[in-house]
Here is the input.
Amino acid sequence: DVKVTQSSRYLVKRTGEKVFLECVQDMDHENMFWYRQDPGLGLRLIYFSYDVKMKEKGDIPEGYSVSREKKERFSLILESASTNQTSMYLCASSLDGGVNGYTFGSGTRLTVV
Amino acid sequence: AQSVAQPEDQVNVAEGNPLTVKCTYSVSGNPYLFWYVQYPNRGLQFLLKYITGDNLVKGSYGFEAEFNKSQTSFHLKKPSALVSDSALYFCAVRDTDNYGQNFVFGPGTRLSVLP
Here is the structure.
């Protein structure tokens, strides 16, 4: 069964900490995405990547960075966590330009205190 | 620009009754349209999609959706709701005529099926 795995389901971090959210897919997908989900706002795209070592800003990249050193792994980095980054973070991957949609991970619920 | 709207934050329906979750979209070209479902503290799961062909598409768990180009809508339907259908539903669209565009997701509609 193909899957996207996010390393943590729940995470609590302190303000100012550097936070790493890891995502691994086993489907050999080219494209990977990081979203945050907030009530009433739906899913908002933070960063995405179409290839190894390639990254593009999404709609809300401020306060975040990403790393894609290997095809299967896409990491989201919060350089200095703030309370307004408390959210559900969803990783997704896709093979092609969209015909088969995205496969999502189970999400990481991050709380910054 | 592409966009998608889900006009209802919440839909309540009695078990056994038909349900509809609404979605309208805006694209400059032809759309790819998807419905996803999210159960509590989980990621999104694929339900169904419209790429091309028949306007009525059938998906998982007895759900179906009808693509209506003139009304730019892609409403999700099920003839008989189950309590287990209670979840958050997201509509997503991608404009196929804009190469490089990612999917845009709606804000979500919470479906509650009452026993």
The interface with chain B takes residues 4, 9, 33, 35, 40-43, 45, 48, 58, 90, 92, 97-99, 101-107, 109 of chain A (CB under 8 Å). Chain A has a mean pLDDT of 92. Residues 37 and 43 of chain A are 5 Å apart (CA to CA). The two ends of chain A are 36 Å apart (CA to CA).
